[in-house]
Each structure stands twice: as C-alpha cells, then as structure tokens.
Write a structure and sequence with these properties.
about 325 residues; alpha/beta; Rossmann fold; three-stranded mixed beta sheet; 14 strands; globular; binds nicotinamide-adenine-dinucleotide
C-alpha cells in the first residue's frame, strides 16, 4: 500500500509511518518540522521524506499527483501559540483544504483525520461526550481551524475516518502536561496540577487503530478513547515513578483555570462496535515509554492549545 502522511515526523504521524513501513508499505511523509523531529523516522528506501508545508498547494498537488497514494493520513497541525491565528489558519485550514482537495482530485480511496475534542467546547453538554454533541469550537484558534478542516473533509465526499481525540501521549509527545512535568521535575522545579480529569491514551494504540482505518475499517467519525478518565495528578505520579525520583517537590494543586475543562471523556461505543475491543496500554507503561524517549532525545515543546493548562507555571 502507498500512504501519504502529512506531519509524518510528528508524534502520531511517525508512529503510523513506522507501523506501515514495518509491514512493507511505501510511505511519503511531508513535514515542515514545526513540532516534528527528523530523528522520529529512520531513513529507508520505502520512506520518501519531503520537507515542506501542506499550505503550499502546488507542492501538495504535485506530491499527491505523482505518488498516487492509496490512503492519505492527515496528522499535520499547527497549535504552538494560541495567539498565532495566522499559522493555525494557514496549516490547519488552508493546508487541510489542500490535502482534502488533492485526495479528491487523485481519487485517493481513504482519508484518515485526527480532530481535537476541543471541537465540543470547554463546557461539553454531556459526560461522556457523544458523537452527536454539537461542534462548538469557538474556544480557541486551534479548535476553530481543526474543525474547519474536518468540515471540509465531511463536505468532500471522500471515504474518510476522523478520530476525535482528547489526550494522546507517549514517546514524541510535545504538547500538554507530560513533557512539562518531565522537564520541570528534571530541573527539580515544582509543578502544578489542577483537579481536572483526562483520558490519556497511548500513541501506539491510536496508531494501530489508524492503520486499521487506513486499511478500510470504519467510516466517518469516531472517538479514540478508553472511556475512563483519571485525575491529572495520576499522570504526575506516573512521571515521578518512571523517573525514579526519591526527592521531588510536591505539586501544587490548583482549582480549575478559566478555560480548563473538568473532564473530557469521549464516548467510545461506536469505536468499539466497529473496531472491536481495543487494548489500551496502562498509563504507567505509557508514561515509562515517554520518559525513556525524553531521556534519549530531550524535551522540546511543552506546548498548550489553550492559554492555561496544568503544569506550566
Ligand atoms: N496529541 C494529542 O493529544 C492530540 C489531541 C487531539 C488531536 N490531535 C491531532 O492529532 C494530530 C497529530 O498530533 P501530534 O500529537 O502527532 O502532534 P505533533 O505536533 O507531534 O505532529 C504534527 C506534525 O505536523 C507537522 N506540521 C505542522 N505544520 C505543518 C505544515 N504546515 N506542513 C507540514 N507539516 C506540518 C509538525 O512539524 C509535526 O511533525 C494533529 O492533527 C492534532 O491536531 C492530537
């Protein structure tokens, strides 16, 4: 199979690429290295790596037209600075429209997308959130622009799967509290946690499901979620345990910030019905794998999609 992966050197994209390459597929990975890193994928014959932006329509049209992929896996996203609307709009909206249209023009058989749970707003109307919850992305530039691309995908008539995600973590994770906890604890600095709860899923579990989606499982919208949430302090404790720290500052527990959501729990029932039972890797194992990665490659990022998120200061 030939797979075109946008953001192929990012956390999710590189894990999908590794699974596809390992079974003999051919992969073209485009990345502008905004948050991805070259060392995430080992150079090999069946990997065609292109440095460039999906906002470059001519480039996307040429690459997709020449490569003629069977599947387009769109993981590239901009989110580094909540105030940088231009970059978010350029990558997520213009870039998203470019890859959707290139897939359509080249009759690509499958399209796999990754949407943020922030599309449901900061105060979701249900817990767990069902797939028919209205889209309310007005909380952030990231959610607005990610939702625009998902809307284009729905408009396109392509055969697609979109996985709506809450917190995907593991090796190569550069956003959210995990890299911040690791970095601050490495420097002996105190972290803060809120009372929020989250459903942390292991990136490799998602990548396995994405490969199945690329192969033809599922149609339309899914929540990739275990269906259970844990307090963020559990993540903190797992980082402390994985780092084998004897002496570390106790975290400060703060109430929820103004744009923090108490819990983001996505109803996974449609995913379980169509993808079968998914084995979710336990949090401690996931965090151990992430800590191993940070130790080997260092921490870059620690980005937040919203202005206030646990861990930062
Ligand atoms: N990680 C999560 O918790 C989470 C949650 C919800 C949704 N998502 C979505 O999942 C997808 C993958 O996320 P991730 O965690 O792997 O993030 P990531 O930052 O590790 O990967 C994104 C990749 O896209 C690349 N990129 C950014 N702008 C680009 C551009 N203009 N052209 C080409 N490449 C570009 C980056 O360099 C990076 O390699 C994203 O679409 C994200 O919105 C992730």
């Amino acid at each position: 199979m030939k797979a075109f992966i946008t953001g192929g050197f990012g956390q999710v994209g590189s894990h999908i690429a590794e699974f596809l390459l390992a079974r003999g597929d051919e992969v073209m990975a485009i990345d502008n290295f905004a948050t991805g890193r070259r060392e995430h994928l080992i150079a090999q014959d069946r990997l065609h790596a292109v440095e460039g932006s999906i906002a470059d329509k001519e480039l996307v049209d040429r690459l997709v037209g020449d490569f003629k992929p069977d599947v387009l896996i769109h993981t590239a996203a901009s989110y580094k600075d909540p105030d940088d609307w231009y970059s978010d709009a350029l990558t997520n909206v213009v870039g998203g429209a470019n890859v959707v249209q290139a897939a359509k023009a080249n009759k690509v058989g499958r399209f796999v997308y990754f949407q943020t749970a922030l599309c449901y707003g900061l105060k979701p109307q249900q817990q767990p959130i069902r797939l028919d919850h209205p889209k309310l992305p007005g909380n952030s530039s990231y959610a607005i622009t990610k939702t625009a691309a998902e809307d284009y995908l729905e408009l396109s008539g392509l055969d697609f799967v979109t996985f709506r995600l809450a917190n995907v973590i593991g090796p190569r994770n550069v956003s959210g509290p995990l890299p911040i906890f690791f970095q601050r604890l490495s420097e002996g600095k105190r972290c803060f946690v809120t009372t929020a709860r989250r459903d942390f899923v292991f990136v490799k579990d998602l990548a396995r499901a994405a490969v199945r989606a690329a192969d033809g499982t599922g149609h339309g919208t899914y929540h990739f979620s275990s269906g259970t949430d844990v307090p963020i302090i559990d993540l903190y404790d797992a980082v402390v345990e994985a780092m084998i720290l004897n002496d570390y500052p106790e975290p400060e527990v703060r109430p929820l910030g103004p744009d923090d959501t108490a819990s983001i729990l996505l109803d996974p029932s449609r995913t379980f019905a169509d993808f079968g039972d998914i084995r979710f890797t336990p949090l401690k194992e996931t965090v151990r794998a992430a800590v191993e990665y940070y130790r080997a490659y260092g921490v870059s990022g620690g980005y937040t999609h919203l202005k206030h998120e646990p861990g930062k200061k």
